[in-house]
Structures are given as structure tokens and as C-alpha cells.
Specification:
Elements: E1 15-22, H1 29-39, E2 43-55, E3 58-61, H2 67-71, H3 88-95, E4 103-111, H4 115-123, H5 136-144
Antiparallel strand pairs: 1-4, 2-3, 2-4
């Protein structure tokens, strides 16, 4: 048996959940830019969910066929991007950020640009200890000096 060369599957690049509340008439431009980032190898979409908040504790998952009515644009290149990796807890947390009647797009993306860097560190004896997102609010507090340097 021969060993296969290292692949991108041995590591995941940094992961991030990004959610956007969408207007009823969203432009196709941001979706074109996202597709260009995917095609250019900058990011990989691990999950893409569209949700419409229908009540205080309720949401409807939108499929590709219902998107033109909900957000005013067809997103055929992203069909099949929904993988179900985002769990109910992630979705509930995100829905609390938007009002009833809002539609959100939730992306779980992998940043691929750092994979060669991670592999290089490891090839030279380093071990990846932690990789993860930084809370934007915590970072903003640290930058403006209002944070006390301790965890909440």
C-alpha cells in the first residue's frame, strides 16, 4: 500500500459561521463575489442555509426554488450547498438576532488560504494546538481599551 500525498482533507482551514439578514430584493452581486471566492480557492462552503423567521420560536428552511420569491434572486450555482452541518443550536442563536419575517443566509465556510501555512508549520515540527474564531465584539473591546483582559 502506498501513502497518498497530504491533502486538504487532512486538515480543515479556519472555519467561520457568517450570517446575513437579507433584504427582500437582495442584489446578485454579493453572491457572484462569494462564487468567485469559492472558484478562486479562497474559501470552501461547508454549509449554506436560508431561513425565514416565521414566529418567536419558529423558522422555515428555504429551498432553492423558493428563494426568488423570498429574496428576489435565483442562486442556482449554490444549489446543493446545504449540508446540514449547522445544528439547531446555531440556527436558534442566529434567529434571535433578527425580527419575525426576516430571511437570513447562514454560511459555514472554511478559509483555504491558510492550509499551506498550517502544513508548512507541521512539516517543520510544529503542532497545531488551537485554531478558531475570535469574537468580533471581544476584539473591538480589546482594540478600544474597554475590555479588561479577562474572560466573561
Amino acid at each position: 500500500m502506498t501513502e497518498s500525498p497530504p491533502s486538504d482533507q487532512e486538515h480543515l482551514g479556519p472555519l467561520e459561521i457568517i450570517a446575513f439578514e437579507l433584504p427582500p430584493d437582495v442584489s446578485s452581486e454579493p453572491w457572484s463575489r462569494l462564487l468567485a471566492a469559492v472558484d478562486g480557492g479562497a474559501v470552501r462552503i461547508l454549509d449554506l442555509e436560508f431561513l425565514h423567521r416565521t414566529g418567536p420560536d419558529e423558522a422555515e428552511v428555504l429551498d432553492a426554488d423558493s428563494l426568488p420569491d423570498a429574496i428576489g434572486v435565483e442562486l442556482r450555482p449554490f444549489e446543493g450547498s446545504s449540508s446540514g452541518l449547522l445544528d439547531d443550536g446555531d440556527i436558534v442563536d442566529l434567529l434571535e438576532e433578527v425580527g419575525i419575517g426576516a430571511t437570513i443566509a447562514v454560511l459555514l465556510v472554511e478559509h483555504l488560504s491558510l492550509l499551506p501555512v498550517i502544513r508548512s508549520f507541521e512539516a517543520h515540527g510544529s503542532r497545531l494546538v488551537v485554531a478558531g474564531p475570535v469574537n468580533a465584539d471581544d476584539l473591538a473591546r480589546a482594540i478600544d481599551g474597554s475590555g479588561d483582559g479577562t474572560d466573561d
